[in-house]
Amino acid sequence: MNILEYENYQEKKSHGDVAFPYTTYPCSIPLDFASVPVHWHDEMEIIYIKKGRGLITVDLKQYVVSAGSILFIIPGQLHSIEQYELESMEYENIIFKLDILISKQTDACSSDYFQPLLDGRLSIPTLFEPDHPYYAPIAACVDGADEVCKTYPKAYELAIKAQLFLMFHILFSQCCTAEAPLKNRKSLEKMKLIIKYVENNYMEKISIADMAKEAGLSQSHFMKFFKNTMGTSFIDYLNDYRLTMVSRLLVSSESSILDIAAESGFDNLSYFNRMFKKRFGMTPREYRKKFMEN
């Protein structure tokens, strides 16, 4: 299971398709899932907080967000969503391909705005709070697209694109800045390779030697690089990722706890049970029962 498949388990309504890849769905942390591990993808993502507070990390920078916060995740940016302290958070996820706004024949919209944004030569703010000068018109565009998605009337695609174009007009004309390449961009790119490897192989045995080879580093350099970049050891990160996947499967699958543990890369049941209880404060059986009752 890759991270997008994991996220899409929570999808309540999906109207994205190959012809018009635009999807919006509501989520709740920790009711729907404990967290969304750090990941990246090729789609644009808008996270719109509706209730409560949470913690969102974008390119390793943390943001404590609350009702009304709107975050823009550029394709390729590392990001994660977590519970903040003991609070819950309800939010809307909007994911779409920028291709729906970019002409197949290169024009000024593509060459002057969208491509520089994707290349990192232009930057838009990640977080918009209600006190931002341009929050209201940006939020109105997102709300307008949401209103269309309530009924999906005839030619709804045009209405959604109209709202997105207006939103990007505001972003590019009022909030955009030229940006020099980040000094840590190479580190972020290397970290993306590591994270993608974990996404695709977490169910198998993964050693420090495997990851060092994947990253093109010595084992000692890899461990130091990962700790300095992510703030945690690779083994702790890998276990946390696996436990997140376990927590998702416990409430979305009827498989036995033993099978779920094995599918998620844990080959020692007693070790798995200890790690799970340490992370979630209850046994896997108690966790499954609690969420099934909810």
Low-pLDDT stretches = 1-15
CATH second-level architecture of the largest domain: Sandwich
- Kindly state the number of beta strands: 10
Q: Describe the biggest sheet?
A: 8 strands, antiparallel
What would you say about this model in short?
The protein has 294 residues and is of the alpha+beta class. It has helices at 3-8, 108-119, 135-151, 156-175, 185-201, 208-215, 219-230, 234-252, 257-263, 269-280, 284-293; strands at 22-29, 35-39, 44-58, 61-66, 70-73, 79-83, 89-96, 122-123, 127-128, 177-178.
Topology of this structure?
Layout: H1 3-8, E1 22-29, E2 35-39, E3 44-58, E4 61-66, E5 70-73, E6 79-83, E7 89-96, H2 108-119, E8 122-123, E9 127-128, H3 135-151, H4 156-175, E10 177-178, H5 185-201, H6 208-215, H7 219-230, H8 234-252, H9 257-263, H10 269-280, H11 284-293
Helix pairs in contact: 3-4, 6-7
Keywords: DNA-binding, Transcription, Transcription regulation
Organism: Roseburia yibonii
Domain HTH araC/xylS-type: 192-290
Textual characterization of the structure:
Keywords: DNA-binding, Transcription, Transcription regulation. Pfam families: AraC_binding (PF02311), HTH_18 (PF12833). It comes from Roseburia yibonii. By secondary structure, this protein is α+β, with helices and mostly antiparallel strands. The protein folds into two domains: 3-178, Sandwich (Jelly Rolls); 185-293, Homeodomain-like (Arc Repressor Mutant, subunit A, Orthogonal Bundle), CATH 1.10.10.60. The protein is built from eleven helices and ten strands. Helix 3 packs antiparallel against helix 4. The relative contact order is 0.10. Residues 1-15 have low confidence and may be disordered.
